[in-house]
Write a sequence for this structure.
């Protein structure tokens, strides 16, 4: 689970960066639910992990959270959310 949370976080940030290119902002409509799934997986993994295994999980949690927040901000600024 800890590797899955990190992979979801990295892929969510990559999707976010691609969504910043002109005419590709609608990718955030796919990326935000993807990052939300990664956030849920990260939270579940964080509750089940031991103390020494939490580094990758926390990084995945932070990356997914950033992808959700910045993706929503990008949709608001770009007029995707009305």
């Amino acid at each position: 689970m800890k590797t899955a949370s990190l992979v979801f976080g990295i892929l969510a940030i990559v999707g976010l960066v691609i969504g910043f290119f002109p005419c590709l902002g609608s990718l955030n409509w796919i990326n935000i639910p993807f990052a939300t799934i990664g956030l849920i997986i990260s939270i579940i993994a964080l509750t089940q992990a031991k103390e020494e295994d939490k580094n990758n999980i926390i990084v995945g949690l932070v990356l997914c959270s950033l992808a959700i927040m910045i993706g929503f901000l990008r949709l608001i600024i770009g007029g995707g959310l009305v």
